[in-house]
Amino acid sequence: MATNYVLVIAIVVLVACGTVLVLERSLSRILIGFVMLGNGVNLTYLVASGPSGDAPIIGMGSGEMTDPLPQAMVLTAIVITLGVTAFGLALAYRAWQLTGHDDVQDDLEDDLVRRRADLDHPSASFDDIAAGIPDEEGEDQPSEPTGVSDDELAAEIEAEDAHEEAAATRSQWVDPRDRDTTRHTPPDDTTTEEGR
Amino acid sequence: MTQIVVLPVLLPLLGAGLCLVFGRSARAQRLISVVVLTTVVVTAATLLVRADRFGPQAVQIGGWGPDIGISLIADRLSALMLLVSTFVTLCVLLYSFGQGIVEYGRETPLSVFHPTFLVLSAGVSNAFLSADLFNLFVGFEVLLAASFVLITLGGTEARIRAGTIYVVVSLISSAIFLVAISCVYAATGTVSFAELAGRVGDLPPGIAQMLQLLLLTTFCIKAAVFPLSAWLPDSYPTAPAPVTAVFAGLLTKVGIYAIVRIQTLVFPGDGLRGLLLWASILTMVIGILGAVAQSDIKRILSFTLVSHIGYMLFGIAFATQLGLSGAIFYIAHHITVQTVLFLVAGLIEYRAGTTNLSRLGGLARSAPVLSVVFFVPAMNLAGIPPFSGFLGKVALGQAGIADGDWLAVTTVAASILTSLLTLYAIAKVWNRAFWQPAPDADHEHDDEDDWSHGPLHGGGRVSSSAGTLMTTMWQKVEQTQRLPMAMGLPTVMLVIFSVGLTVLAGPLFGITDRAATELLERTPYISAVLGGQP
Which residues belong to any copy of the NADH-Ubiquinone oxidoreductase (complex I) chain 5 N-terminal domain (chain B) (predicted)? Predict the structure, then answer.
């Protein structure tokens, strides 16, 4: 069976562009990427259905019919893509309503764990929280808590984020990559101080 | 009589339509949902009995042949999964009534919740019963679309963020699934499992392996198997308790079910055994290490969920009767236990206003019933004898030892380590939330703003005015200091059910053994779908 190279090239271009866009942080770009990706994937069904022929209606054509099954599948896939894309757009709009942008933020809790590791402090869920409560022997001295509490760290991160968001609103077209570097600076950096 | 196979898919969809029609009446919506789901549970039980007695029950929808039409089939594995999942769904539904009443009062529900919940149930049933790849894809999409709505319920900032991650990951996995289906069709000219079983053997081994890898990648994303699991702990904890509970119980298990199906029916034998075992080891160990690092109950539970997926994969990888039987038993056990633990997390949140361990304490004294309800499934999850978690782990361990080579034994060792670490994570929750005295108890009651920088919990980044479904509303009712029966009873029901799995482990293992034999034989399934056709 001769391969249809036009289709194959179209698939490659669509899927490649879609993949690049999906890797962005902004949800609206991800969605555009997903639509391209989805269309590329849908085209693979045309390749899968083999050589083209007459319309698959019994009694209509004289020669070989095309395989109708992939067409039925691809129709279903298109409908599903449409619905999901609409939901994604609503999601992006809602994110924009709430925060002024539709970038996907890092998880706050991941940030917490990472910072705790950077600071080399025990987590607040470590024993120190129970300082002052005697254990079985009852001879413990209440020790100074050594950990940084989750709340403090979280407040710190939030302050930074608020700072970033304020900056982002000031200059609408700030490059997302710049903002990322801000977010990943270690906490003892000057950014944190400003954030506070 | 085999026609009842379509009911678990059709009824919830019809019910969802009716619920939308009666969108203004909370009572009508509740009534419809309960009647529909109860009927589905009864149907699933009937199907299990029939599948066990008379072999797989298959239906060709619309009377088209299995090669072009859609067929649904319930063999022992499908029927058992269906029964456990619909029963759990029903309990979660009852729990959500309680929560809804507590949050909004009796008359003003969130009108979109019930229809979406029913659609989710239909999607799950469709995925379990589907006899071809494309219908499985549709089942996945139906349940995903419903889960998108549920995970972003209320549209608060934390949920939108979590929902975005979830939606994007799901979209990518769907795209990969579509590619896989088109490749399968191009290579074999069919998407029906039964026909694939006959045709994949004729393919060149390289092509067959590529198809298998594509499908496995898709299902591993859905099931949150290690390198592909990062999305789960990120997106689950922010949703309302009943939603997280039903997601945790069902959605990943649908992925596991799909892996079982293709590994036994379409690509039989223990191809990719090494890969699956390594994935299973990494999933178990890395998942549980994640749980140990967390300090929020819901997040700990999300990580144990990821970790315990490894156990099921472990049983599947051997492709022996012993391993599969253990894996199926473990799925049934884990659906129940993980769901009930998330429901209990919801109760803790209701009771104490948070699930963050550094703010909890003294619950064993102030809420003794809640402690018992937490303790039993928690020990069950950690695999303490005599609970079903222990039995499942023993069965898997036996399968590993029987297999006997070094990788299998390593996996068994990793599973024991994981079990111990699970106990550690659970003990941490128990000690800090239930046993230690409450930390400065009245600190948060008078300080509404406290929520705005609560570190994790749904409210993470939410300003206090936006409020999540759970937190802000519950501040007001907290004074009642009693668990509402409407939320407590379904939870207790599920706890009893999970203990019941222990008591009835003998008959249950009988069913899973027979299911595993049936899976390995393959002929009952294939002949049920293809029927009299050559």
Answer: 67-98
